[in-house]
Amino acid sequence: MAFALAQRGSTRAALREVDAAVRVLTGVAGAKARAQRGAVFHQIGRLDEAFADYQVAVRVLRRAGDRLGVQRTIVNRALLQAERHEFEAAQRDLVEADGIARELGRELAVGIITGNIGYVAGLRGDVPAALAAFEEAERIIGGQGGQVAAVLQDRAALLLSVGLMTEARQVALRAVEAFRRHGRTLKVPEMQLLLAQVALSERDWTTAAGHARTALQGFKGQGRARWVALARAVVLQATLGAGEPDRVAARDVDATVAALAGRPLAAVQARLDAARLAESRGRDDVASGYLAEAARVRRRGPATLRARGWYAEALRRRRHDPVGAMRAARQGLRVLDEHHAALAASDLRAYSAAHRAELVDVGLRIALAEGRPARVFEWAERGRASRLLVRQVRPPDDPRLAALLPELRVVTAELDRARAEGRYTGRLVSRQVELERRIRDRSRLLRAEVSLPGPVAVRDLAAALGDRVLVEYVQVDDRLLAVSLVDGRLRLHDLASGAEVAELVERVAFALRLGSARASVLLRDVAARLDALLLPFPGDRPLVVVPTGVLHSLPWSVLPSCAGRPVAVSPSAALWHQAATRPPSSGEVVVAGGPGLPGAREEAQAVAALYGRTALVDGEATVEAVLSALETAATAHLATHGVLASDNPLFSALRLHDGQLNVHDVQRLKRVPDTVLLAACDVGRSVVVSGDELLGLSATFIERGTARVIASVVPIPDAETKPLMTAVHRHLVAGVAPARALALAQQEVGPSGFVCIGAG
């Protein structure tokens, strides 16, 4: 009775019922009543009382030989210990409970315990282990006809923790529906709070506050004081994010922070927010106290918690001890990078970089205040595409993933045919979505074993640059700045408003897409304005550009000062140095042309003829044939339709005869070419996520070890690539370096959306 009342949210009534039972029952029955009361205490946040009841119940049940009672109680105790970050104790309880459930033949309980093992792994920061456990739990529970809502809740929380907001929201909404369907209204406010946290991460302050306030009212009605504090903490974050600190009372903040004792990560975030509020009111001493408390966790606990502690320490020191603040920020970055390096899935590593960006911001602001270009350059580099520096990341072989990719290929090929013939595509689209989900989930279970490279020294970078000019851009608030490195000397430049530059970059893309005479006038005007803002440096030396934000989508050749000038666009200076100083690999030239693209067959054959090769076209241009050729090639030219999946960038793809070659296929290549040319629409463009991390086809080739990719960063008519591409290859055959070959070809043919990404 008490359990049913608690699940419906009537926790006060549940406590009355179970208290009455505890007073009159003894022995095993009394122990079970205590275990149930512990569960109610646990749900309303009275953790010490819950733990005491669990301890008493387990002792009595063990003495009585009640294996089932022990199994149920130690599962609950494990979850409580996990909340307190007592992970070893939690794991011991869950392993024991799993063994008992298997002995008793309780398959549904095995599934539930497996989901709990995933929950604990997620709190520890072991994302692949957590995802694997959730997948197995859903399989077992679903097979037994059980309720998977709790597994969905834990999966949504894990996806949120690694920055996968869209998926977290989708899974959370499924969990809400499932909890309501099964009458488990106790859990609905928890999911509303999770949806509020998703909105916070997306900087949607209004939605976040709305969800959090709804959750707050639900928790109050359920008498769950600790959850009330969690909801208030999210309301505080949303209010501060919206720039409305005057709406927050200091006493409410203090009460919220105090109520979050025992929730380490939430307590740290609440103290960070409280410090921010105190600073906005000129109470620096109060802010320092909150930050000092938050910083105490920097040496213990999961990686995310320790990194937040180092962030608090960096904030605490930034005014009176800037050197110590930068040291703390570096330590926080080291913690996160070591943690993220073990993730084989590119999207997990990219999207989980949000906390990196905050640590980098502390160091960058201190460096700018000092006005020292070398410091600014260091912190600009620390914020750049960190995952791409982890060389030769190839996910481990996985037979199940290998089997899913060809299946997706067949479905996408059939989908293309159905669309071309005007047939119904609903079933095929559903199958494609399901296969992509399974591939994505499977790839995230894998681990990587890699080493983390150190930053490149300025003197080594200058030596490799030679007569080249390097320009690295950073944006702080709305100011766009740059650090240039010329002849071994670093200089800092304050350039322009970030909003103004973003608007001009968008106009460039519009003019290139339009392609009319009027658009040419617009392009010349906008390009000249951008040139004056972005490159106020005299000279025509070869250029290495490290963009930020929208500048990743700028075709640099349209700028007047870049006409005929070799320009290499690199995600980071360290990555450019790594690629530029690596010995070139040997191999053949591979050329392939995809179907349904006007001029692709002719382009592929013309390019192949320049090298005395035969192009893969028509039925020979299959995905497996192209992948096999790529593994032995030094240079590859792929003329085909390209698809940039901006909402799911790891399924960006090239269309070949029997289906799509996507990012997952490239990730599994044993070896990649040194130089790749993608003559396909805008697949050169990457999706830019937190910390200038990049996802997409070009980024994946670079990640896997390709030195340079020539591709378009704006949508272009596919038929227009042949003259430019054949001109590029004529220069390559003559021994001209790729970036210069592209510059010369664009001088001959005219400006385009193509850039040379990587070493140049």
TrEMBL record:
Pfam families on file: CHAT (PF12770)
Domain of life: Bacteria
SUPFAM superfamilies: TPR-like
InterPro entries attached to this UniProt entry: CHAT_dom, TPR-like_helical_dom_sf
Residue ranges of every copy of the CHAT domain listed in the record: 527-749
Full protein name: CHAT domain-containing protein
